[in-house]
Amino acid sequence: MANQIADLHCHPSGWAFNRMRNTSLELDKEKFHPWTIEQSSLKKQLKGGRAYRYSQCDFGKLVLSGTRLVFGALYPLEKGFFDEQLIGEGQRKSKRHSLLDIIQSKTQGLSKARIAFLQSPEYDYFEELKLEYKFYKSRDNKEEAALVLIYDKNKPTLSKGKYILAKNNEDITASIQKEKEVAIVLTIEGIHALGVGNLKNKGTDVSIEQVKERVRALKGEASTEENWEHPVFFITFSHHFDNTLCGHAHSFPDVTELIFNQRKGCNGPMTPEGLEVIREMLGLNENLEGTGSKRILVDVKHMSALGRQSFYNDVIKKYNNFAPNRAHKIPVIASHVGFSGANTLDELVRDGDLERDNFKKEGFYAWNINICREDVEVIHESEGLIGLSFDARILGVDNTLFNVINFRKRNNIKAFSRTIKKIVEVPFRKRLDNPLGIWKRISIGTDFEGYIDPVNKYSTAIAFGNFGLDLEVELKKFRRKKPEYFGNLDIRKDIIEGILFNNAYEFVKKHFNKTSPKPVSQGDIVA
Predict the structure, then answer these.
(1) What b/e readout covers 492-515, taking b as 16+ CB neighbours within 10 angstroms?
(2) Structural domains in the chain?
(3) For site-directed labelling of 111, which of 36, 100, 126, 521 has its Cα 20 to 30 A away?
(4) Can you give the pLDDT at residue 89?
(5) CA-to-CA distance for 445 and 500, rounded, in angstroms?
(6) CA distance readout (Å), 5 to 195, 207, 501, 504
(7) The pTM is what?
């Protein structure tokens, strides 16, 4: 049997939802669902370029690839991608279609009607979030089929299977035992999805109290909002544009910045209101005491280095240092990241102004969108989880004039193995407790359908099998050089199968839909 696969961060519904939304297909119940897959370009898949002409992780591919567990990210498209007020200086919208409209239509395959809606005052993040959730529910636990283009076939392959939306761990455990079935644990990318970060003249932000009530709705605990049947596991707190609660890490390459302007809030700090919302997510009061509410975990990908400092110092370290027992620790998630080459968050903050395409450290992409050694320490000590992004640029193999040789040399499994090596060495060099436990902290978080330019050989979910085999070869080489980093662990059973599936599965079993325990007595947890 092929390896089971778990993906900590991807968008299985993104391809279908955004291409059919605001078109006539949205009115067709027989077609407006996640199993309706627009046929991809096999040529584009083979080339492994940015995924705007092929689907990377639609449910047909997930079933064929043996993927059993997916953390499906709901994501209302941010208005900054479609607002002419944020495009480069001096550009103006014509009477018909702006340059921005044309780019979004051609590169993302969005209809003109979809773009017009996203630019309109009627576009509301939270309502869009609920619609994508409804889109998932439309085929929950139903057998479906789709034609899928894969690498070694001259004609489309029929893929039959189903997905289930998980309400609890029992749903996940039952689903992963079944062939051709995918368990979906819902997550959200960007706290803007709850109604903040609206642009001027494009909607009004809701109050912090309403954001907190919407957080409770995601847990099934709200009194005024409609409660969700399927709990949200974690929220990627920041994303590409200002959400007013926490700074976002600089994320756009140089050429993209000619079109989109993410300067407001970029690399900025966490706000007091942001910490307030995070405490609500984690079920904590102002004194960091558990309230008995369910936890929604915090994903630090896209969170600025300044924001991460505040989150770690003001919440994670204070709480975890006084948690009644290890089972109640709050884990830190970095769901789809690469390594920056930096040692500390202070270093990432200091170097924020240097973040251009050719800015590298040790050959790694040195922007604060990537994690540093200090992040790894916090994640290791909190017993959190790191998802390895499949985005070539994030892994340090962006194809620029400055890096042609490195691009050819590293645009393969080495992009991943060198990142893993840097992550694994941290607890050993820092003499942290249980350094071998770092191997349980690593998983895959592809960011498929997140409009990424993947490492060429692994451009869709179909490639997961080859990825596992290739990674095993690389880690065996690493063990010969650094046997102390492996102890008595078996490369295949303990490490490869852990990265591909077991680490994410054990993590979700431990933390999904769990409550934040109230202290046994006053003073058990000290702020």
Answers:
(1) eebbbbbbbbbbbbebbeebbbbe
(2) 5-511 (3.20.20.140)
(3) 126
(4) 40
(5) 10
(6) 33, 40, 5, 9
(7) 0.93
